[in-house]
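Allow me, if you will, to draw on your knowledge of protein folds for a short while. The matter concerns a single protein, recorded as an amino acid sequence and a row of backbone structure tokens. Could you please explain, in whatever detail you think fit, how the structure tokens follow from the sequence? I remain grateful for any guidance, and I place the record below:

…
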Amino acid sequence: MWPDLIAKTKECGIDVIQTYVFWNGHEPLQQQYNFEGQYDLVKFVKLVGASGLYLHLRIGPYVCAEWNFGGFPVWLRDIPGIVFRTDNAPFKVEMQRFVKKIVDMMRDESLFSWQGGPIIMMQIENEYGNIGGSYGQGGKDYIKWAAEMAAGLGAGVPWVMCRQDDAPEYIIDTCNGFYCDGFKPNSDKKPVMWAENWDGWISPWGERLFHRPVEDLAFAVARFYERGGSFQNYYMFFGGTNFGRTSGGPNYITSYDHDAAIDEYGLLSQPKWGHLKDLHAALKLCEPALVAAESAEYIKLGSMQEAHVYRGNNSICSAFLANIDQNKAITVSFLGQSYTLPPWSVSILPDCNNSVYNTAKVGVQTAIKVVEIKPKASTKNDASGYLTQKEVPFVSKSWMAYKEPVGIWSDLNFTVQGILEHLNVTKDRTDYLWYFTRVYVSDEDIAHWKENAVSPALTIDSMRDVVRIFINGQLIGSANGYWIKVAQVVQLKKGYNDLMLLSQTVGLQNYGPFFEKDGAGLKGRTTLNGFKNGDIDLTHSTWTYQVGLKGEFMKLYATDADRSSVWTNLTHDEVPSILSWYKTYFDSPPGKDPVVLDVSSMDKGQAWVNGHHIGRYWTLVTRKYGCQETCDYRGFYGPDKCTTNCGKPTQIWYHVPRSWLQPSDNLLVVFDETGGNPFEISVKTVFVKTVCAHVFEDYYPPLQMWSYPKDINGEPSVIQMEPVMQLQCEDGYTVVSIEFASYGTPQGSCQAFSIGNCHAPTSSSIVSKACEGRNSCKIEVSNSVFGDPCPGTVKSLAVKARCEPSSSTTT
């Protein structure tokens, strides 16, 4: 997917691609490195360079990134005397060795800019200023050491530290946040840089989905450059997927879509991508003035309105007009002309005269994506001789199952006195760890419970992330949370009872001070309450430990080994069943659309396709309140401002990259902890089914309005054009019908347009003629095309079109 993602990023007007370097991905075992496949860092950097873009390499090596353990390899915890991210010798030795390896690798491949490569900047550490105070003087000494160490590696390009206001003079301190237009580095000799502009937010399991309106995002970017910014990076521009067990948290979902301009599947998120593309075009028109001016001239235009003007030699002039009022549109006077500024917006004037872009005016299309089972082409012809379409649902009717043993399943178990910390046992090789002990129940205990009408209970002082409680092989309860207390009533029989706890991690801690000490599993005392002679403290009892699942050990998900003897045919009356493995085969959906696995019928577990670990799934339902029917872009954004998905599972669709598929006989293996119904799992595709736009008479795409080459008098040339609406289906799709079109005063939004008081009756026929049967189309938004249905009224064109696959397209 990398070449396509890079190309779409460049097309949007991006100059620099930024990436972390994931230490735990590249060094999963100490001094055993992985730079292959998805971790081929050199290949990625070279692809970026070949595209003509630059690269900012954020080594860290702590990256946070909602990534498992913040990017640190878990084996670091086992080094004697180690404390992460402070003035600690064992940690500094390992950190320097890895950072040096990456720098040397980039230099050996001639990837730094001074060698002709794309890397123009590096980063050491990451957001340490947020937590450095927790380490006292050791933290201050560490950050000074990290800076000196990085600078001494001979990379030959600038190093940055984000959120580090005490960064040394030779390290650029940068801003991270939703807004950074007021940020100033700790020296006036340093450029104003924004390392992370949070254009979305991440979701834990059971939480809503977060969205940032593009009007506010564009406002934040324009304000940053208006007030002297020099470098701004979107976090994320492409979010992607945390395949396997790479998602951190704990409890962050597998998707890392992040409401990014390019979605998890590689499709454009419209209008975000398109509106940012216009923003970037407008900003680049201002570039000659921005780089020529020593500083901006500030002009107050009103109580909450202002201008920043950049002037250079040869009459070069660019201006930003801002209205930070959250409620009212204001008309201002600037250099003898009037400009109407919508609330919470910035207008960009590359020549200090023509407004080519306003952050609140979105003239690009909106794309409505759907996730559906795609019809599969039949090989039979109908009576007319044309190929027919026969819908073949990608839901397997043939499944096989394997029952995961409850408790101890191999000779690789061990027995010790006391409760061990989860990660010290598993080393994060698996999410799962079995704890097993035996408890004796006497006749007196049974009588005591009957006489007092009470039941014994298991109490765990503190637990994270998930625990499932089994008594004598039966699941009697579960709990999930972050270091929560667990109290579970248990049913015990006379004699010996087997108590088994299945402890699970759902992504390791990735943020905060001392998070290497966080651990997992059980903490504090574990007791059985309610016995005749008092509570039974199990904390120091004899426990047997079993790491992982038998199905994991047998690699039931692998394609290169015969496991047929352990599988049995599954029937509908055998599900749901706890701790079960399921497998089937499926054909790839036709076409090139991104593929997703729909596991809404399941509960919690993991999935593999052709041996590739798709990731954890969990159909945990979000709370029913807190979402907004409409999202007002105006005013400061925070994660709770624009949310969706209330009362629904946080995630039910899981990305299956096309490159992991073959035309037929794709192996799907699913492990579910509490059963679910595999017969309802389906393989679907994601595609844009509807495109729509609403364009006013005064909307001019920046690059169409402006031609920056100078005329014969040395002045920039302005090309006035009519406003235009552009609609485009995805590649391989055409517009098959226009479902709404109105030139006049249409109302509503994409999914609910309606005709207003003013409407040109020719709207539908003109738009249909221009667009139907084409992959893309342009319609001039003017009276000359549609006639003037209401003279003296500001008019607009609203269109909703449906896209479907086609064998050929015309533009």
